[in-house]
Amino acid sequence: MSDSEGETQSELEALFEPQDTVESLTRWERMKQQYDLYIRAPLKVAINDWRTVVGLGLLIMFGLAGTVGVWFTNAPSSGQAPFLLGPFENWAYPLGTDALGRPIHTQLIHATPSMFQMILGGAGIAIGLATLVGLLSGFLRDTLVDRVLMTIADVVITIPGLPLVMVLVAVFQPRNPYVVGVLLGLDAWPALARQIRSQVLSIREEHYVEASRIMGLRTWTILRRDLLGQLTPYIAINAALAARGIIFGSVGLYFIGVLPFNALNWGVMMNMAYESGALNDTAKLHWLIWPMLTIFLLSVSFVLLSQGLDSVFNVRLRARHAQTAGEGDKSASKGKHDNA
Amino acid sequence: MNLNYLIRRLGQAVITFWATVTLTFALYHMMPGGPVESMQNIILQQITTSGGTADLEQIEEMVTLYANIQPDDPVYIQYIDYWRQLLFEFSMGRSFSHQEPVTTLIAERIPWSMFVSVYSLVIGYTASILLGSAMAFKEKSRFDSIMSTIMVSLQSTPYYIVALLLIYSAALQLGWFPTGGRVGTGVEPGFNLEFMTSIIHHAALPILSTSILGISGAISLRGNAIRVLGEDYLRVAELRGLRPSRIATEYVGRNAILPMYTRFMIGIAGVLSSSVILEQIFSYPGMGLLMYNAISIRDYPLLMGTLIIFTSITIIGILIADLTYGYIDPRASGGGGTE
C-alpha cells in the first residue's frame, strides 16, 4: 500500500485495466515462475527436511519392490527352499525361509502390490468422501444438507471402526484388495471432512473474500481459487495418515485371520508364524520379525512423510526458498484481480 | 449449559444408536441369499452336530429365535419387531454357538473389556500429557528431538505388534506376566487380595499395549503447550510475578490439556476397536474375543449384538465428554456446534 493519494489512484486504475496491457511477463517467464513456485521451492524445502527425505526414500523403495521387485523375483511356493533357514545364512535367501520352505524376502515383496492397492482404495475413498462432504457442507452452511452430512459424519465417527469392518467382512467376504481397502477407509473420512468444512467456513470470513464478493465474484469462484491452496496440506497429510490406518487395520485383520487368506499379505505371514509358535521357538522367530519390521518401515515412511509435508506446505518457509518469489507473488496477486 | 445444546447432543446420540441398529438389521438382509438362506447352513451344522434333523420350517423358526427376525413378515414389520424386542425385551437374539441369549453373553464380558479400556486410556493419556509438556518446556533441546523420534516410531508401530513384543519379552523371556487369560487358575473370585492382584497381573500387558494408542497425543499436547507458551497473557502473568508453578499448572497446563479432553472420550472408540485384535492375542475373554469367536463361526446374532454394544459404549463416552466439557472449560459451554 502506498501513502500518497495519487499513487493509490493510479494503482486502482491499473487494477481495472484490461489484462494484456498489465501482463508484462512472457510465457517463458511465467512458466519459469510457476516452476519456481510450485516445484523448485517445495522440493528445496522437502530436501532440507530429513523427514521428507527418509519418508520418500522408504516409500520409493517399497514402490520399487512392489513393481520391479515383483517382476524380478519368482512368486514364493512351498518347498522351493530348505525349511526354516535362518536369515543371512544362505545368500539365495537373505532373510531366511519359513516352515513351508518359502523364502521370506519374496513373500514380503509379492505382498507389496496388494498392500498398495488397499492403501489406494482406502485412502482414495477416505479423501474423496471427506473432500466432497467437507466442501458441500461448508458451502451450504446451516442448511438441511449441511446438518444431515455432519450428522452422518458424527455417526460414523462414533461407531468403532474395526468391529464394524469385521461385521462387514463377515457378511460380504471381500477378496479384492481395493474393496478391503475401501471398507477399512470408510471410517477415516469424517474427521477430515470436518476439518475441510471448518476451513471453508473460515475462508468465507476472510477480508479478501469479502472484498472479492463486493467486486461481484461468485462465492464459488472465490472459494475455488482460495480453497485449493489451503486444503492441499490437509488433504496430503491426512492421506498419509489414512494410509497408515489402512496398513494397521488390514494387517491386523489378516493377522487374526478374519480376512480370507487368498492373497499374500504381511499379516498372513505373521499369522502363520504366530500360529506355528514362533514366539516360543527361536528357529521360527525371524519368520515373525521380518513382516513386523516391514510393516513398521512402511508406516514410518507415511508418518515421516505426513510430518515432512507439513513443512513443505508452510508458505513462509517455501517463500524463502523460491528465487522468483518476490516478484512472483506480486504479479500473481495482480493476475488474480485482473482476471476478475 | 443451555438446554438447546443438551437436546442437540442427546438427539445426536439417539440418531447414532438408531443408525447402528438399523445397519445391523439391514446387514441381515444384505447377506447373500438373505437371512434365512445364509443362516440355514450354520443352523443345519449345529443341528447335525447335536445329532438331530430339521426341515425348512423349523429352520425359519430358529432364524426367528436367533436373529429376532420373522422371515415371512413384510420388511417393515420385521424392522419394527426387531426394535421392539431390542428396546422392550432387551433381546438381541440368541447366539448359535453358545446357545444363550446374546444380551447375557455380552453383559458378562463388558466389565472386563471396560476395565482394560479405561485403564489403558488413563495410562496412555497421563503418559502423553507428562511427556508432551516435558517436550514443550524443553523445546528444541536434545530431549525434545530424541522424544520426537521415539514418538514417530511409536506412532508407526501397530498396537498388536507392541502386544507381540511385550508377550515375547515380558511374558515369555522374563516370565513376569502371564501370556493370556484374565485370572489365574484356581484363584477364588471375590473381594480378596489374591483375586485382585491376579486380575491386575493378567490385565497388565493388554493395558500396556493398548495405552500406546493414546501416546500419540503427546505430540498434539506439545503443540498446544508451545502455542500457549507464546501467548501474551503468559507474559503478563510473569510480569505480575506469579510463581512459576502456578503459571505452569493454571495457565499453561489448563489451556494445553483442555483440548485433549474430548479426544480422551472419543479415544474410547479406538480402544474398543483395538480390543477385537488384542483380546485374541492375549486370549483375554472380553467383548473383543467374544466378537472374534463369533466371526470365526459366523455367529451373526452375536456379531451384530457386539457391534451394537460397542457403539453404545462409545456413544455414552462421547455424550459424557460433551456434557461435562462445559463445566471443565467455561469457554466452550453450550457452544462447539460450528466447529
Mind explaining what this structure looks like?
The complex is a heterodimer of chains A (340) and B (339). Chain A is mainly alpha-helical and 340 residues long. Chain A has a domain at 98-205 and 233-312: MetI-like (MetI-like fold, Orthogonal Bundle). Chain A has 15 helices and no strands. Helices cover 75% and strands 0% of the residues of chain A. In chain B, helix 5 runs antiparallel to helix 6 (142-155). Chain B has 339 residues and is mainly α. Chain B folds into two domains: 31-91, no CATH class; 103-332, MetI-like (MetI-like fold). Residues 334-339 of chain B have low confidence and may be disordered. At the A-B interface, helix 6, helix 7, helix 9, helix 11 and helix 13 of A face helix 1, helix 6, helix 7, helix 11 and helix 12 of B.
Task: For this entry, give a set of tags.
heterodimer, A: 340 residues, mainly alpha, MetI-like fold, disordered C terminus, B: MetI-like fold, 0% strand
Report the end-to-end length of chain B measured between terminal Cα atoms.
17 Å
Which fold name is given in CATH as the topology of the domain at 98-205 and 233-312 in chain A? MetI-like fold
Order of helices and strands of chain B: HHHHHHHHHHHHH
Q: What is the H level of CATH, i.e. the homologous superfamily of the largest domain in chain B? A: MetI-like
Question: For the report, how would you describe the main beta sheet of chain B?
Answer: none
Membrane topology (chain A): Multi-pass membrane protein
Protein name (chain A): Peptide/nickel transport system permease protein
Pfam families (chain A): BPD_transp_1 (PF00528)
Keywords (chain A): Cell membrane, Membrane, Transmembrane, Transmembrane helix, Transport
